[in-house]
What does this fold into?
Amino acid sequence: MNPQSRGAGLRERFQWGSYGFLPGLLIGVVLGWIFSGVVSWVVRFGLALLILIPLVLLFFAWRWWTTRGIGSQVIMYEYPPRQAGDPIEARSRLVDPNSGYQER
It folds into this structure.
């Protein structure tokens, strides 16, 4: 085999391979740009979750600590019927002994 013919075949392979290099480079740049957007979105979403999850858990814990057992402490008082013309027409009220909140 002649060394010149081997070099010519290699040169021809390289020439055809170079035609695929530029489109491959362009496709790689575009896909990298798109993928960087996806990665950026995932990072932003993760950071938002890192902030929101503890806040939501604290809210639920606060609700649990403040409303725990109130259902058993609400007392229903019966009032005698009022005279006609009284502004309050309800016969009973719900009273929360902890806060003093009254509900008709």
User: Anything to note?
Assistant: The chain is about 65% helix and 10% strand.
